Amino acid sequence: WKPMSVRVSRLFGNIYSNLAYEAWLHNGMKGDGSVKHVLLWRNSPSVVIGHHQNPWNECNLQEMAKDNVTLARRISGGGCVFHDKGNLNISILYSRTNHNPSSITSILANILQTELLASVVPNLKRWDLLSKSGKKLSGSAFRINGDKAFHHFTLLIDSDLNTVRKYLQPNTDLLNNFISKNGISSVRSSVTNLKNETPIEMHPKLDMIEDILAEKLAEALDEPNHQCMPKPHEVAVIHTDVYNAPWKEEEEKFKSKSWIYGKTPAFEYSETRLFENLDLTISVKFRIRKQLIMALAVSVSTMKGHAFAKNMTFQEDVSFDSKNAPPFSKVTTMLSPKQKDTLQQQYEQLLMKVVNHRLPHVSVDQACKTWVAQLKLFFMPMVHLSSLE
């Protein structure tokens, strides 16, 4: 028997370092139950999405960019959460045979009730902790990988709840334009801080609370199969001055846009613009996969009917058949000179608005650029798309 290791991260509140350290611990474990870990960590302001979530659909990327709030994707499932220095993250790493989310959630609730006199109750349907009034103060997610697993919690102790709501509420206009959402959607809940549920002063004692939770969790989760009296668990404090830390490779992965955005499940997004004074409606639909626009559907309508519609699917080797292009003469006869000028300007603006503003960090892949270059031969001068190249 080996006692559970207790680790408190002081990695400068860096979300990528902390996620990397947690993943490194998990990957290095044996599945025989010989080593178990309790890890506690805090972060500077950041939004963390679940492994299978869509960041454009889950959080307000524009507000986050304005306020320099970091976005990260974790390796566990579950919903989108906000971290700051007033939120404590608790990770419990163990073998798959010890995986029991209901038991761990109940243990954490009991420690908060007995040690901090907190009025909290476990919600074992979702493995959350709630106040007596039903507000959420802790959510959790877990990962099972072969014979290893971990279960981690957020615990709102003294977080800025106004910023929680600000960053976890996506832009409404943007949200309404999603057609197909294949990722996991977060379950929105009213939240509260632990400081509101206990008579104990929280803010100046966050480090002390961290220490209490680390020790009591280790005591409660250790298997009592040894003959001698248990000794106090030694707490290992992980600092930023670890030279050439072995989890640095993991950290680079968590920082990369290919992980944060590129791991988003494929989805579709549309924008439509109506110009009543010109009797012109332009609709554009994108299919996005691995951070790239992979397909595009364009529709232009007037009172006279459907002026133009084109579906485009981009593949690694794109071929362009001129017979599939809509007849230029048909389009020009259905649009007035003023409509054609407006279409040329607004169609380009609409495309670039989606690519650059609505969906930041989405790029046009090489296949799309090839198609645009060939498409210009048939649409110039009516539609100008050179800015996509």
Can you characterise this structure?
It is built from twelve helices and 18 strands. With 389 residues, it is an alpha+beta fold. Strand 14 and strand 15 form a beta hairpin. It is elongated and about 80 Å long. The C terminus is likely disordered.
Q: What's this, in brief?
A:
The protein has 389 residues and is α+β, with helices and mostly antiparallel strands. The protein is built from twelve helices and 18 strands.
Into which percent range does the helicity of residues fall? 25-40%
As laid out across the biggest beta sheet, the strand order is 10-11-6-2-1-13
What ranges have pLDDT less than 50 throughout 5 or more consecutive residues? 225-231, 308-334, 367-389
The number of helical elements comes to 12
Distance between the termini: 62 Å
Q: Outline, from the CA principal axes?
A: elongated
User: What integer is the average pLDDT?
Assistant: 75
Based on CA atoms alone, the radius of gyration comes out at 26 Å
Main β-sheet, in a few words? 6 strands, mixed
Structural class: alpha+beta
**What share of residues are in beta strands?**
25-35%
Count of β-strands: 18
Provide the succession of SSEs.
EHEEHHEEEHEEEEEHHEHEHHEEEEHHEH
